[in-house]
Amino acid sequence: MISVEEALTRILERFRPLPSETLGLGEAFGRVLATDIAARVTQPPKAVSAMDGYAVRAADVAAVPASLKVIGRVPAGSLFAGQLGPGEAVRIFTGAPLPDGADAIVIQEDTEVSGDQVTVKESSPLGHYVRPAGLDFSEGDAGPRAGQRLTARDVGLIAAMNHPWVQVHRRPRVAILATGDEVVMPGDPLGPSQIVSSNGLALAAFVRACGGDPIQLGIAPDRSERLAELAAGARGADLLLTAGGASVGEHDLVQSALEGQGLQLDFWKIAMRPGKPLMFGQLGDTPMLGLPGNPVSALVCALLFARPALNRLRGLDSPAHPVSPMRLGADLPANDRRQDYLRARVSKDSQGQRTATAYGRQDSSMLAMLAAADGLILRPPHAEAARSGAMVPVMDLRELAEGL
Ligand SMILES: Nc1nc2c(c(=O)[nH]1)N[C@H]1C(S)=C(S)[C@@H](COP(=O)(O)OP(=O)(O)OC[C@H]3O[C@@H](n4cnc5c(N)ncnc54)[C@H](O)[C@@H]3O)O[C@H]1N2
Ligand code: MOO
């Protein structure tokens, strides 16, 4: 058995960012930029008013009340053709360019209008309510960078920088193959000793949450030829995930069946719980992660190993799993040689201090508990017994995996 760290290092060595593609900005949310963005325009392009009111010369309204002659109006999107002279004002609206000669805005609430005269009741210092050209950014300024996952804010900024298209990394294509004679799809006829398959659908959802496109290869029965046939559908995918058949029983056929198809095994078995029988290798051009069949093991391994691989494929450079220290809510016994990921409830006290309490029974078949869990308490190999109140590392499932 190898350590979790070594397994992750060996997995990540096999993955490089996928090539980029050009996408309309409207489709780019959540994708990872392949190039740096620089502003193609200056925003705002000219000095503009930040309020509805009157463009004035600050000097003319230094002493109030001041009576000015309104010589025109300038809504947003137009330009005032003339020049504003002493004793004059121009009616102006939010976002409209300042007329030449004006250097301050008086908001309309501080004025009284009569005919073409406006009486200004409050003075307005130089530059008041004026947004100078380039306040937000100037042409050539740096925007979002290559390797950034685009948020709604980024999309807004890139649009404002006048880019209709962006270069983003292609989404990883992930083939998913569930295995086992005992599993059938939800809703299908269920034999007396059969159970409903959750792994394929859960992994596909997880792949989507990680920015990939899942390809369902179906459920392979425990027969090598059929398993190999279905796995052949992974050709062209960026990653093959199998679930089940990874362990040591005579019916655990994934390794032998795929070795018959040229699988180059890199490693098999990790000192972790859940997830010990995980295997990693290469089937043709496609890296393959053989996940254990227990639903919790499959998803925890996907989180620990498939997610960093997918992050690398989609151009993100954040393979590490964020882990934060939390207070332990109940005693834990000493650990054996497998690194443990204990499903736990996390609560927050009034000071925001978080406490993680492991569920009593930790069985890798218990999907309901995983779904209810807020976090995974990380117990390194041979960790000593820990008392309630001790600080322990926890992976926060609610913050972490965009949907695990
Ligand atoms: N003698 C040993 N037995 C086992 C060992 C071991 O070291 N020695 N390891 C155990 C561990 S740890 C795990 S984890 C499991 C993993 O086994 P497999 O990857 O071979 O998975 P299966 O045997 O195919 O299935 C395990 C379990 O999960 C259920 N399952 C499978 N597929 C699905 C699915 N699509 N949806 C829902 N549930 C699924 C299956 O019915 C089994 O109950 O091996 C231990 N055994
Ligand atoms: O991954 Mo097995 O995870 O210990 O049941």
UniProtKB/TrEMBL annotation:
Pathway: Cofactor biosynthesis; molybdopterin biosynthesis. Catalyzes the insertion of molybdate into adenylated molybdopterin with the concomitant release of AMP. One of its GO terms (biological process) is Mo-molybdopterin cofactor biosynthetic process. SMART domains: MoCF_biosynth. One of its GO terms (cellular component) is cytosol. Pfam families: MoCF_biosynth, MoeA_C, MoeA_N. One of its GO terms (molecular function) is molybdopterin molybdotransferase activity. Residues 175-312 form the MoaB/Mog domain. It catalyses: adenylyl-molybdopterin + molybdate = Mo-molybdopterin + AMP + H(+). Keywords: Magnesium, Metal-binding, Molybdenum, Molybdenum cofactor biosynthesis, Transferase. CDD domains: MoeA. This is Molybdopterin molybdenumtransferase. Belongs to the MoeA family. Its EC number is 2.10.1.1. It comes from Pelagibius litoralis. Its cofactor is Mg(2+).
